[in-house]
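Collaboration report, partner site 2.

Our partner group contributed sequences for two proteins of shared interest, and the home lab folded both. The records are reproduced in the order in which they were received, starting with the first partner submission.
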Amino acid sequence: MDSLGIDQIQINKVPADTEYYDVMNGSHRWEVKVHDHGKVALVDSMPRLAPVGQTADFAIVQAARVSYGAGTKKVTEDKGLIRYLYRHQHTSPFEMIEFKFHCVMPVFIARQWIRHRTANVNEYSARYSVMPDKFYHPSAEDVRKQSTSNRQGGEDATDTKTAQEFLDYLDQVEANYKTYSELLDKGVSRELARIGLPVSVYTEWYWKIDLHNLFHFLRLRMDSHSQKEIRDYANTIFALIRPIVPVACEAFIDYAFESIKLTRLEIEAIRSGKPLNTANKRETEEWEAKRKQLGLPEPVKVEQTQPSSTEQA
């Protein structure tokens, strides 16, 4: 079979009257500092070009309508469709948009972050390179006590004396970087020398993810129950993508992040006005939080009546 020459390929060109612009305004990098040594940088977006008068949201509509042109020019119709798609969990059109980030964060944040397995990641390797002399060191105000209701989190600030003891402890741990550096100079391999470093040391990676999975990450990591340090990164990411896909971000806020999901038992409790029909303590606590957020009245208490003497007999 003869090879197909490029001159034989029929290319459907975009109409000459269609104008496009760079959604990142010609910049190669939008970077925001996080904490003392961390950062999040948006380094690329797909699509990078959008029709003039629209945003990158147009790619969601294009995918939903399986169209190859610039799509409808009625932006209000596009917005309604995007909101419908998100509201009814038609997720695949949102996967047509991708973002690539360069993120620098402490290792303990990276380990939480990587649990979201729906992105392409390439991390800095401490086997090939020397770890930087940079550590996450919170302020005394950010030293939190263990939460009494959430075993995996902290809540209120601890007392000043304990906070200072914790910061002194971090100083001691960070001082071990000098030993790490000296051992490297003496020939200890980087892959072994690194194992003595604390999880407060900084790492970095390139992180590429589609919009559907990014929204899932943001819904969990922007939530008030998430650890404050990773929440700071999630809020930064959201601020970076919002100018590029404002319609999708608005739908995310309205239908996911600031919405309330009700279970069957919770719906029954609303209809009946009675307490949640469960003996599960965590379910009850979650429902009480939702009830207060919705401004619903206290449930009607069901009084236990004593059986009459006749019934007892």
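Second partner submission, folded after the first:
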Amino acid sequence: MDTFSITSSMPRKDNALDNACIESFFSYLKTEIQQDLQTTKSIEETVQLIHDYIRYYEHRRIQSVLDYQTPVQYAKAS
């Protein structure tokens, strides 16, 4: 990720859970599309790849913490 000059956010002092949700998402993002990110040729291609992953994460990727539903399904059921 250093290739793209992406800087992770830092939580406030004494608040380790401040950014836990987004840090978890970025961890999945980096792990699951790392290979694809290394082969992108332009910023536009990288942005599209990230947008595609966000769509996948929200609409198709089931999560055990959400009772094996996607985030969109879970939000609709709430």
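Feedback sent to the partner group on the second submission included the following. The chain has one domain: 2-77. Helices lie at 20-39, 43-59, 71-77.
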